[in-house]
Amino acid sequence: MSEASIPLLDKSQREAEDKKIKYYTATQFQLMWWRFRRHKLAIFGSAILFLFFLIVIFAEFFAVVGGQTRDDTYPLGPPQLPHFIDTSGNFHLSPFVYGVKTERDSVTLALKLVTDESMTYPVRFFIKGEPYKLFGLIPGNIHFIGIEDGIFHPFGTDDLGRDIFSRTMFATRISLSIGVLGVMLSFFLGLFIGGISGYFGGRIDFLIQRLTEFIRSIPTLPLWMAISAALPKEWSALQIYFAITVILSLIGWTHLARRVRGKLLSVRNEDFVIAARLAGSSDARIISRHLLPSFLSYIIVDLSVSFPYMILGETSLSFIGLGLRPPIVSWGTLLQASQNIRTIAMHPWMFIPALFVIAAVLAFSFVGDGARDAADPYAR
Question: Does 9 reside within a domain?
């Protein structure tokens, strides 16, 4: 070995020792973050979810207009795609969209929308538009994107001339908030009920398991049909929203409760539990500080799987008319208009909200996979 290579070897050895010291002195959360960061799909899913939650918070800002605003000049209009090169071949630094005009179809004699390439409208960012109230309190009129003359329709419009892009922004807020609130409520119910059942056992466990079996044996579709008929027609959109959230949660806690019960039954007599009990720890502390963290990865898997199911549950029920009802705007109510083949064939842009459902479900699945691996940072 040459003398010139000795300092390099010593430097690499020092770096290796520093990494070992950093690893063995790191906290549990640091180890989990380092392992999560190595999961590329989880990072990608986190970026998608971050964008979705920005939309949830600032839906009015990202929307072009209000969710119920109608453009009578553009009913069932196709998406207005931004261009950088015009018909003459000239390149524009800022994007623009062409105008539209109506023409009579020579065969059906129906009016149809036709692109008017003689008119161009520059697309602007952070542009003044329709006034709104952020969080229902803060007035504003700045929108992320738009045009100065008329309304810009990136995703096209529905049969009433309402902008699908704006409605999708508001639908993202409703569907994701139902998913998050519903999962959180069912998550804590599952941990609490399953923890009591598995830790105490005996008669308490018997009663809880019979209740769980009863809830899981109820046919889902007839139940939702009965609930849909039972909800008062005079209820406001907010009341229906909270009712759907609570009902989804009360039905969805049973799977997690069963898993928690099974795990607690297998570890409640382990040495570390007996030691905590002899040290004077209360039952609540033993469950929350010793037993539940011992199978954190299983809890994370169940939590990550619950998000897509909750979102798909709300979307499916609203799609068939048993969940949220107009004027509430959710992914399911938006897709109601595209449930026939004629709409998909002639107006395929009505199906764009389905892409948001797919993106959200995949993002939650990717993040769940990464979180599951990160929950056990010492595994190889």
Answer: no
Q: Tell me the pLDDT of the chain averaged across its residues.
A: 81
In terms of residues, how long is the chain? 380
Question: Do 140 and 189 sit in the same domain of this protein?
Answer: no
Q: How confident is the model at residue 304 (pLDDT cuts 50, 70, 90)?
A: confident
C-alpha distance from residue 303 to each of 43, 52, 220, 242 (Å):
18, 18, 21, 21
Residue at 75 is within a domain? no
How many structural domains are present in the chain?
A: 2
Residue 186 to residue 211: CA distance in whole angstroms: 15
CA 330/CA 178 separation, integer angstroms: 10
């996979």: which residue's tokens? 369
Through-space distance between the first and last CA atoms of the chain, rounded to whole angstroms: 34
Q: Write b or e for each residue in 245-281: b if 16 or more Cβ atoms lie within 10 A of its Cβ, otherwise e.
A: bebbbebbbbbbbbbbbebbeeebeeeebeebeeeee
pLDDT digits (tens, 9 = 90+) for 190-230: 888 888 888 888 888 899 989 888 888 888 777 777 777 77
Amino acid at 2: S
- Mean local confidence (pLDDT), 145-153: 85
Is residue 143 domain-shared with residue 256, that is, in the same domain?
no
Distance of CA 326 to the CA centre of its chain: 21
Tens of pLDDT, residue by residue over 229-265, are 777 777 776 677 777 778 777 877 888 888 888 888 8
Asked if 153 contacts 159 with a C-beta cutoff of 8 angstroms, the reply is no
Rounded to 5°, angle at Cα 300 from 198 and 310:
95
Give yes or no: residues 148 and 288 share one domain. no
Say what percent of the chain tops pLDDT 90.
Answer: 12
Same domain, 117 and 180: no
- In this prediction, residue 321 carries a pLDDT of 67
CATH number of the CATH domain containing 226: 1.10.3720.10
Domain enclosing residue 90, as ranges? 80-152
Say yes or no: 184 and 326 in one domain: yes
Task: Report which DSSP code applies to 149.
Answer: S
**Alpha-carbon gap, residue 56 to 59, rounded angstroms:** 6
Residue 84 lies in a domain: yes
- For the stretch 37-81, pLDDT in tens is 888 898 999 999 999 999 999 999 999 998 888 888 888 888 888
Rounded CA gap, 31 and 82, in Å?
45
